[in-house]
Amino acid sequence: MEMLFLAVVLLVLLVVEVVLVVTVVVVVVVVVVVVVVVLVVVVDVIKEVVVVVVVKLVVVVVKVVAVKVVLVLVVEVVVVVIVLLLLFFCLCCFCSFSSS
């Protein structure tokens, strides 16, 4: 019975991790869209020299954010894999205890 409870808890953790990954991806997409829209507006409003500086600044910021997002996603995927392995182990133990 304890193994079944642990399996349910691990399944809930898995769902939470998937929701976190989807949230991170959605936030990144929204940020990229906002940056692109701002750049389009900035290009229409100001001169070329300032646009070059702004574009370089945005590229640096996007690179830093992209690295952090990739690190977060890698950690989330590792956690999901660990939770899946634990869930599989718990279900195997539960099945072996049930059959004996």
Which ranges are low-confidence, i.e. pLDDT below 50, for 5 or more consecutive residues? none
The number of helical elements comes to 2
Beta-strand segment tally: 0
Helix content: over 70%
Order of helices and strands: HH
| Backbone CA Rg | 22 Å
Shape: rod-shaped
Report the β-strand fraction as a percent range: under 5%
Q: Assembly state here?
A: single chain
Query: What's the story with the biggest beta sheet?
Result: none
Q: Give the end-to-end Cα distance, rounded to a whole number of Å.
A: 14 Å
Class based on secondary structure composition and strand pairing: mainly alpha
Mean pLDDT: 76
Transmembrane segments: 28-46, 53-71, 77-97
Keywords: Membrane, Transmembrane, Transmembrane helix
Protein name: ABC transmembrane type-1 domain-containing protein
Write the layout of secondary structure elements.
Blueprint: H1 2-45, H2 48-99
Keywords: Membrane, Transmembrane, Transmembrane helix
Protein name: ABC transmembrane type-1 domain-containing protein
Organism: Elysia marginata
Structure description:
This is ABC transmembrane type-1 domain-containing protein. It comes from Elysia marginata. The chain crosses the membrane at residues 28-46, 53-71, 77-97. Keywords: Membrane, Transmembrane, Transmembrane helix. There is one protein chain. This protein is an all-alpha fold and 100 residues long. It has helices at residues 2-45, 48-99. Helix 1 runs antiparallel to helix 2 (48-99). The longest helix has 52 residues, at 48-99. It is rod-shaped and about 75 Å long.
